[in-house]
Amino acid sequence: MTSFMKRKGFFVLILNLIFFTLFSCNPKRNSIIKVKYSSALGNEGFDGRLLVIISKDVKTEPRFQINDSDKTAVIIGKNIQNWMPNSTESFNSETLAYPIDELGDLPDGNYYIQAILNKYDTFNLSSGFEVQLPMDQGEGQKWNISPKNIYSKPMRVNLSNSAKSIEIEITEEIPSIEPEKDTKHIKHIKIQSKILTEFWGRPMYLQANVLIPEGFSKESEIEYPLMVFHGHFPKTVGGFRTTPPSAIKNDSIYSSRFNITGYKYIQEKEAFDFYQKWISNDFPRFLVLEIQHQNPYYDDSYAVNSANIGPYGDAITYELIPHIEKIFNGVGKGWGRFLYGGSTGGWEALAAQVFYPKEYNGCFAACPDPIDFRAYTVIDLYKDKNAYYSEGDFKKTLRPGMRDGKGRIKTSLKDINRKEHILGNKSRSGDQWDIWQAVYSPVGDDGYPKPIWDKLSGEIDIEVANYWKENYDLRFIMERDWDKIGFDLVGKINLYCGDMDNYYLNNAVVLTEQFLENRSNPYYDGEVDYGNNAEHCWNGDQENPNYISRLRYNTLYLDKIQERLKKTAPKNNRLQNWNIK
Fold it and tell me: Which long-range contacts (CB under 8 A, 24 or more apart) does 61-64 make?
């Protein structure tokens, strides 16, 4: 072959590559989305996070379709300041998105689109920082249903390179929420917290749903133990129904979570059965307290003192609980207070017991959020360099964020955190990983929680990790301080978790058990138990499936509480139906 032919072949190859690059690739769409809001919604200028959700599903509004599953819609977002009516905020093709990388990566096609503004208030904190955060409006810190947030009606659009820019007008406002009404057995209490008000620089409140005993009388000499049922924002006391089930026993409504039908009937029957026990003559008399401690970062505070959230641990223990006990004849002392809950509530139950060892007489922590940060789900915060990948010299592997009961991965840590980053930067998503960061982290230079890792890259900040260790790693704190608090915790710590917990929470329970069983002196004298092949949120019931036991928290631990009271209650106690004298 001559050199000319070789050069000709080379030039043809180059031309083919150029042609393929120019005409065969699918360039990103130059998407432009413009959003404005009607002057009928206000004229003062809004601050907040403007979100646009894009979906294929027409069954529900796009704002209800953002989640961690494969079925999630697409979301984009941006911060806005002093947004005035009829002025336009725009998104282009390079706008970061979830679960895709950028808006321009969305394939051409027809979609349903909706915009919503999660409004921010300005807080002048006692620390001297000024921050902007979404103030809860009684919904439990949920951006897509929070009253006063404004949104557009869903609209059908075509997104393509040839299509014009999309224009969205926000015309709707989410209405306020009616407060729950008191009943004979359920009371709703609200107090202004002095110490939280001082921290946040504005009036801040704690609210409580209280289930009071049958036959309660303020004039009676009977006193009642207090059961603090920790968990996510409770609108009112759940699982308590004074009428028989109205749902059909053999309905065909399928629960994908539990793989059964007729679950509504099961829930209603369990609630009615509990009511019947509650009013029976020989049932132990006690108070159940469910706390509403929603805040500008999440649907609850994690019930501890925090540099970013405020002194909620002290506010709950020293302001709210004594107030409730005074109204409803609580024992009013540590021997008459118990803690239980699952998941977030499980972590809170253990944390409150550890940080206030003399103020409570036992915790029953089910499937707790990570209680040992060497197993922060699947991350070792003290050794791993990256939260999203485990890395070797030649390969890195994406870390899982959630699994099903058979171990199949449902999503990754990277994707979960990307979703939160789009919903709101600076820990303002109102979601799980951001609230852990907000509670556990020191205050950053900008007044917001200092990140434990970079939300996009996953690179871990070891200085922040060490701060977490010293202040909120419950296993580490117990082991470090056992010579000071151990005697006050003997007999009080009980942990339960399924060994196939969907969020790998069993890993931290195992590490904590190793300390409690092998190195605690004095011996902790409590209980750690696991559910074989049980998912989130197994709570210690070895006889019933989780879809039943999760409905029985208020009766599940009564036998163990009774035994605890036999050992610790004074002989002159004024309890009723506990049979401990």
Answer: 61/114, 61/154, 62/112, 62/113, 62/114, 62/154, 63/114, 63/116, 63/144, 63/151, 64/144
Threshold 0.90, pTM exceeds:
yes
* Residue 470 region by backbone torsions, left for phi larger than 0, else alpha for psi between -120 and 50, else beta: alpha
What does each C-alpha distance from 517 to 206, 513, 520, 528 come to in angstroms? 37, 6, 7, 9
Which residues, in sequence order, are CB contacts of 323 under 8 Å at separation 6+?
189, 191
CA 45 and chain centroid, separation: 30
Structural domain for 324, as ranges: 186-372+473-568
Q: Which backbone phi and psi does 113 adopt, to 5 degrees?
A: -130, 145
Question: Which long-range contacts (C-beta less than 8 Å, at least 24 apart) are formed by 432-437?
Answer: 434/297, 434/298, 435/297, 435/298, 435/302, 436/369
Number of domains in the chain: 3
The neighbour count for residue 98, using CB atoms within 10 Å, is 22
Q: Report pLDDT digits (tens) over 401-429.
A: 999 999 999 999 999 999 999 999 999 99
Distance CA 130, CA 128 (A): 7
Report the distance separating Cα 314 and Cα 234, nearest Å: 20
Report the alpha-carbon angle 214-219-224, nearest 5: 50
Within 8 A by CB and 6+ apart from 436, the residues are 369, 452
Q: Which amino acid would we find at residue 526?
A: G
Tokens (6 digits) for 415:
């994707």
pLDDT category, 262, cuts 50, 70, 90?
Answer: confident
Distance of alpha carbon 319 from alpha carbon 208, whole angstroms: 12
CATH of the domain at 494: 3.40.50.1820
Measuring CA to CA, which residue among 93, 92, 83 is closest to residue 116?
83
In three-state secondary structure terms, 264 is helix
Q: What are the distances in angstroms from CA 495 to CA 403, 436, 449?
A: 21, 20, 29
The secondary structure of 361-378, three-state, reads CCEEEECCCCCCHHHECC
Strands (E) in 262-357, as ranges, are 287-292, 305-306, 310-311, 337-342
Q: Are residues 483 and 445 in the same domain?
A: no
